[in-house]
Amino acid sequence: MKFLLVFDFDHTIIDENSDTWIVKCAPESKLPSGLRNSYQPGHWTEYMGRVFVYLGDNGVKEDEMKRTMTTIPFTAGMVDLLGFIGENKELFDCIIVSDSNTVFIDWILKAADFHKVFDEVFTNPAAFSSTGYLTVRNFHTHCCAKCPKNLCKRKVLKEFLDKQLERGVSYTQIVYIGDGGNDLCPVMFLKKDDVAMPRQGYTLERKISQLAQDLSPVECSVLVWSSATEIMSYLKVLIKE
Q1: Is 10 annotated as a binding residue?
Q2: For the chain, what are the domain ranges?
Q3: What is the pTM of this model?
Q4: SUPFAM superfamilies given for it (predicted)?
Q5: Residue numbers annotated as active site
Q6: Angle at 153 between CA 209 and CA 103, to 5 degrees
């Protein structure tokens, strides 16, 4: 009897968007309007690549970026929740599927000593070049019309579950915790015994509600949360059952 917890990162584990937080490192903490306006829908990773070039051109170094990123606050109750999951790792496998990048997530989790809570992190690969610039690549290619070009979270989840099955691991229940529009695709993949936990007041909650109004509701149960203590309460009930 094992449960799989799937977390988004930005606005779910942390209470901000890591990609927009890094702008604090830019001169006067803002980007030139030409750069800001260069974003095209579905091509966020390419846009962030340009942001990182701008930061590098302005002499922003790795240690300054790291200092800035590790000041991002965790979402209310999240520190307690991750502590609780860490104490019950024999019952929970735990993964992150995020449109952030490996460098940011690694910094933030390690600074708070939460990296051991997560079995795997699926996000856009990032690294510092020999010239000290942060570079980021798309996580994968996929054919899903609903998702941004660089990441279909449903595909990630499905491939992870298939790989686990090959290892002889199957899950009693999947609990998916997220907030964004790109979390809808994996939520629609969940089955009736699974649970989607959208953050209150965010896009995922609105999209799930809209589906219910259109009489094509998601198959899984839906539990809305505003503090991670509510997620922890649910998990405590789950492991008592």
Answers
A1: yes
A2: 3-16+74-239, 19-70
A3: 0.95
A4: HAD-like (SSF56784)
A5: 8, 10
A6: 120
